[in-house]
Structures are given as C-alpha cells and as structure tokens.
Amino acid sequence: MHRKMRLLSTNVLDMMKSKAFDGFLSGACLRKADKGALVFTPESGENAVFIVVSGRLRVFLSYEGREFTLAILEQGDIFSTHTRAMIEAMSHTEIMLMNTKDFREKLVAHPEISMAIVGILGDVLNSSLDAIESLVFQDVRQRLAQILIDEAEERGEKVPNGISVSLDLSTENIGLLVGASRQTTSQLINEFIRLDILEKSENRSFVIKNINALKALSRP
C-alpha cells in the first residue's frame, strides 16, 4: 500500500518537448496564482485540464471545516478541474490551462500520443485511489511512515547516516497530507526521532536512519 505526495513520476512538460507534441499546447492559456490562493473549487464550474509550469499546488477535500490532502502537484504534473477536490497554490504558481473539450480534440488530432496521455491520467487515478485506500486501511502513524518511505524510495538521497528526504512541507501541511492535526503530526515525528528512526535536518528535510523499522511501522 502506497501513499505518495505526488501523483506522477512522469514530467509532462518534459514529454511535451518532443516533436510528437508539436502544437499540442497551442490554445492553452497561462494562469498565475499567489501563495494561498484557491485556484479551483468544485463551485468554480471550470472544466479544464492543466499542467503545472512552476510552483506547487495542494489537491484536497474539505468537509465541515476539516481538510485532507490528496496530493501535491509540482512542475510537470497534469490534473483536471473536473473533480470534487479543491486546489490551492502552496507557492507562487503558474499553470498551462486548456478546456477539456479542446484537450479531447487535441488527442483525436494526435492519435500517436493519445495512449501516452491516457496512461498518465491512469496513473493519476491510481494515485488518487492509493490515497483513499491509505485513509481507510491505515492509521495516522502508518500513513506518515508510508509517505516517508515512498519519498525515500523515489527521491531520497543516501547520506552517511541514512537516507535524506526533503518534503519541503510545514508540520501543518504534513498533517493535512496524513489526515491529522499539527499537534498529532508533531508528536508522531518526535516519536520517530525518539525511536532513532528519524532525524530532523535542514530546510524541512529528514534523515531516515532505519528504513526497515519505518517499514514495520507502516504495516497495518
């Protein structure tokens, strides 16, 4: 069971640089958002597909004052506004936005790349289902451990005392990602530190000192 921060390992912007995608983004518009701005909400009524050009976006659900983060979108990620999720800029952000109808027509006009896009959107769906699965079958401690494990395996860097992972998230935002309060998240991080599994580093980074112990904590 995985609980990733990011939806994709593929950078769609890099993929768009190939000749097969020439003209694919013609007609797309650039939209900018400042940190903290709600870029899309279920009530906005926009039906579009967008690619993150720069910055970070948080995809989350909100109900009766409670929030749960489904994913963090970063440069090169693709997502649709046609969901019940809210999307917030975590930093100054730029996105390329295309109406869903126009996007569909582009796929019809470029059949050679349709399967690539369908595969990417399938990855988005799988990652969203992983987030829901972890919420149902894992407790907060297990979800936090799993996020750290996945980040270590995907983007971690080996250092003398373990594996360095950079979440670049505040304790509050980590809590929103695992479905816990800031206080509970802080207590769990400190617990991992006391168990000599985790070590705080600079710039919102951690060093996983014992990934096998962390994997044991992630199991239901």
Automatic annotation (TrEMBL):
Residues 138-212 form the HTH crp-type domain. Residues 11-80 form the Cyclic nucleotide-binding domain. One of its GO terms (cellular component) is cytosol. Keywords: DNA-binding, Transcription, Transcription regulation. The keyword Metal-binding does not apply. Transmembrane segments: none annotated. It holds the Pfam family HTH_Crp_2. GO terms for molecular function: DNA binding; DNA-binding transcription factor activity. This is Crp/Fnr family transcriptional regulator.
